[in-house]
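=== Structural record ===
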Amino acid sequence: MTYAITQTCCNDATCVAVCPVNCIHPTPEERAFGSTEMLHIDPRACIDCGACADACPVDAIFPVDSLSAGQREYADINAAYYEGEEPIPVGDEVDGPNFHVWGEPAFERSLPSDFGPLRVAVVGTGPAGMYAAQDLLLHTAAEVTLIDRLPVAGGLVRYGVAPDHPATKKVGDTFSRFHSHPRVRMHLGIEVGRDVTAEELSAHHDAVIYAVGASTDKRLGVPGEELPGCLSATAFVAWYNAHPEAVAQGVDLSAERVVVVGNGNVALDVARILVADPEALAATDIAAHALDALRASRVREVVVLGRRGPEDAAYTRSELLALKHVPGVELVVDDHDPRTPAAIDAAGAGDRAAVLK
């Protein structure tokens, strides 16, 4: 019995560090790391130890024979990543699990061992800010000041992840232990530029890390964009996640058809929330006002628009699979352009377009 990595993979590579046989790739040392949608377990090398499942911060790893109906495709997705790959011989081990030539390990210090403690400010308590803080706390003697303009820490983990993805939100548990670290001071409800200036932060810290993300929407620049009923995905996500700055009555669901422009993961989140059974969402941490609105919603069809063909779609396979498996929802691909079905038919097992077959 081997293990497989599934939809909620967060790519933080904790699983890579604990795997005793190096069967999870790409690793942080490999070129593909950071550019793949998720990590993958090689079923040929996995020894069924379960160390990766225990270490995964978002519960994304399961034994293949215990995958649910909606997860079974991930066994093939994991295996497909290694198609055409052959292990690199290491010494007398010709058929080992290594896909990377490991050099001699070097443990270089960027700071001398007698260097005094640093004072570092991290602006933003989302994943980017907390990964930076975590690295500082684990590998230096720095004192860290965490600053966030919102009253609750978490950033996109708290206010950006869809409520029906609770496992993904578990990565926040990994970060929360650092909130009370003895070398951490956290200031919430503090906005740089309003409550404190960038100059003041620089004057009182040796370094300042800005991990605030994108604070505004990307506008389309098309006529009618400002008409009632047209809103950004940022505003919609904030609405259903109870963002402190979201307007509770800001979304009108009185029409039967909704058009989502864009086909990235957030676009699919929006589509999935609109068509999901509200009673299934009731068990999540969705905002109460959003749940009430979805229960009264008249939406019956969601049209997702993409500028290019399925081979260039922006979504990840895991998010499209999540949409495909929403109970009671039929996923239909508009094939008026013959290039669309042709691209889907020609897609390989590891391609995003293959999920549309």
Remarks:
- The chain is about 30% helix and 10% strand.
- The chain has three domains: 3-80, 119-210, 233-356.
- The mean pLDDT is 89.
- Strands lie at 3-5, 24-25, 40-41, 61-63, 119-123, 143-148, 184-188, 207-210, 257-261, 301-305.
